[in-house]
Amino acid sequence: MKPLSVILAEHRHLNGERISLRPISLEDAADMTEYASDEETTRYIFAEPKNSEQTERLIAGYYMREPIGKYAVVLNDGGKLIGTIEFRVDEATRSGELGFTLSRHYWGKGYMSEAGRLILDLAFVKLGLQRVHAAHETANEASGRLMLRLGMTYEGTRRRDQLSRGKLVDSAYYSILSEEYAPEKR
């Protein structure tokens, strides 16, 4: 069997009904700056870039430096980048960790649910993983609802376990196991 990193590299492009996942490039700087400079969109994840130059540094230094598992979430109609989704794989435990950001102008429309299902298909069908997990700051209840929609199970809350914008915050943890994943229910 191929190493998981090779299989993941072979699946850099994933196509859904309304969105596609593809590698992030410098050409995405304007769209990423549009949503990433919005404090409402990024308040739970990172300090937002203030301009295109900072966004280009973020893209080059983070998304392009080690691109495998880092995807642009792009509308099929028009090609606009509306967010990102990341998937980190641990070969030793045959597990993956999911993380995501979506422009607030696209919240509540099911785009991130579609992106998450594409990643879960990749994880369980193509990679043969045993477990996918994710966490969110407890104040970000919308992320928890998304994880539940994806079929994940709430595992618990770790108190003051991560630093977010200079303060310690609580994180809620979720996971889904391979035997719990049902692609036909998508």
Structure characterization notes:
The chain has helices spanning 4-10, 29-36, 39-42, 52-63, 111-126, 141-149; strands at residues 14-15, 19-22, 70-75, 81-90, 95-102, 131-137, 153-164, 167-177. With 186 residues, it is α+β, with helices and mostly antiparallel strands. Strands 1-2-3-4-5-6-8-7 form an 8-stranded mixed beta sheet, sandwiched between helices. Helix 2 (29-36) crosses helix 4. 32% of the residues are buried.
Task: Offer a quick outline of the entry.
This protein is 30% helix and 32% strand. It has 186 residues and is an alpha+beta fold.
Describe the main β-sheet briefly: 8 strands, mixed
Mean pLDDT: 90
Under the CATH scheme, which class of the domain at 4-130? Alpha Beta
Number of helices: 6
CATH H-level superfamily of the domain at 4-130: Gcn5-related N-acetyltransferase (GNAT)
Portion in beta strands: 25-35%
Assign a percent range to the helix content. 25-40%
- The secondary structure category is alpha+beta
Question: Order of strands across the widest beta sheet?
Answer: 1-2-3-4-5-6-8-7
Topology as H/E string?
Answer: HEEHHHEEEHEHEE
Number of E strands? 8
Q: Termini distance?
A: 28 Å
For this structure, the CATH topology of the domain at 4-130 is: Aminopeptidase
Low-pLDDT segments, ≥5 res: none
Task: Indicate the radius of gyration in whole angstroms.
Answer: 16 Å
**What characteristic shape results from the CA principal axes?**
globular
- What oligomeric state do the depicted chains represent? single chain
CATH architecture of the domain at 4-130: 3-Layer(aba) Sandwich
